[in-house]
Design goal:
Number of helices: 13
Radius of gyration: 20 Å
Order of helices and strands: HEHEHHHHHHEHEHHHEHEE
CATH class of the largest domain: Alpha Beta
Number of strands: 7
Distance between the termini: 34 Å
CATH topology of the largest domain: Rossmann fold
Largest sheet: 7 strands, mixed
Strand order of the largest sheet: 3-2-1-4-5-7-6
CATH superfamily of the largest domain: Vaccinia Virus protein VP39
Helix content: 25-40%
Strand content: 15-25%
Oligomer: single chain
Length: 333
């Protein structure tokens, strides 16, 4: 997925810097990715550590991580289920089509009519299988993650769901094809949560805590609201032109809350090594982060310049790559 703040291009650098501090053998370590997003960093460490603890407050993120992190053993016949889902008749009255496709009269065009109906048909069948205990959790989250990623590829947006495009773009006109969300298989069971990070940190412990909180006032709940709608598939009345659902603003996106919230997290973290990804455009300055973290142990900092896509604040469109600095703040408690 083309995900704002994704660490896909930085994951190998993060892994290298973590090993410089913790050591190259992580096989007996517990690694926590407490603002997991699409789970890229957790996936990077999944093959290295004894256990990954993954968490995110967004439900679509929880689904992705239940699959990519939570699933670690082979799922038999999963391709058979994807084939069945791919050949379902279209749903004419599903929630996505009725509220987010132009043909229904909703006035919204997040998907072509056909793809909206196909998303509904697939989501309804996955729910039906799960509710009637025909499939277990591992297959359920694999199929749901597969649908989320495949739907995202044909979304009629400029990367995020803060707005839809007036005309169906080329990629959105293609038929949705279910591409399996294959995960890394190994012998190590992991944990996946869907909680507020500051609440969860009081309940868990481990060796390495990786933090990648929101940097600014951008709300992931708004930018990816339709993925939450597909993953939850609940009934609500979409609001406004963009069809938003109710959501809670993160304290990490509030200038008057972020400092206290961040210190609370650091203070209550039962982890020896803490790594914070933050960039030079964040609500907290490099100095402010340093002042908070050094109260709790030995502090250091590494930086990396890289190219990233920057979202326009007003139009939610993603423009050309710009150069920025990623800061990796390091604390040994």
């Amino acid at each position: 997925m083309n995900y704002i703040g994704s660490k896909f291009k930085l994951s190998s650098w993060i892994e290298k810097e973590v090993k410089k501090v913790v050591g190259t053998d992580l096989s007996q370590k517990i690694f926590c990715d407490i603002f997991a997003g699409t789970g890229i960093v957790g996936r990077t460490f999944k093959k290295e550590v004894k256990q990954v603890i993954s968490n995110d407050l967004e439900h679509y993120s929880y689904v992705l991580n239940k699959n990519y992190i939570g699933n670690h053993e082979e799922i038999k016949d999963k391709e058979k289920y994807i084939e069945k889902l791919s050949n379902l008749p279209l749903a004419e009255d599903g929630f996505v089509y009725q509220n987010y496709c132009m043909g229904s009269g909703s006035g919204r065009q997040y998907f072509s009519d056909k793809n909206g109906k196909k998303i509904d048909a697939i989501r309804i069948k996955i729910k039906e299988w799960y509710d009637h205990e025909n499939i277990e959790d591992n297959l359920y989250y694999f199929l749901l993650a597969t649908l989320l990623e495949s739907a995202d590829k044909v979304a009629n947006t400029a990367s995020v769901y803060g707005a839809f495009l007036k005309h169906i773009k080329k990629s959105a006109s293609k038929e949705l094809i279910l591409q399996p969300a294959n995960f890394i298989e190994n012998d190590n069971p992991n944990q996946v949560f869907n909680m507020d990070s500051n609440e969860l940190v009081r309940k868990i412990s481990g060796d390495i805590l990786y933090l990648d909180p929101p940097y600014n006032q951008r709300q992931y709940s708004a930018n990816y609201h339709l993925l939450n709608t597909i993953s939850l598939y609940d009934n609500f009345i979409p609001k406004g032109k963009t069809g938003l659902r109710e959501y809670k603003r993160s304290n990490y996106c509030k200038m008057n809350k972020v400092h206290n919230n961040f210190e609370d997290l650091i203070k209550n973290a039962s982890f020896k090594h803490i790594f914070l990804s933050y960039n030079n455009e964040g609500l907290m300055s490099e100095y402010e982060v340093k002042e908070i973290m050094k109260r709790y142990g030995k502090y250091s900092l590494v930086k990396k310049e890289y190219q990233r896509f920057k979202a326009d604040r007003d139009s939610n469109r993603v423009h050309k790559a710009t150069s920025t600095f990623e800061y990796l703040h390091i604390l040994e408690k």
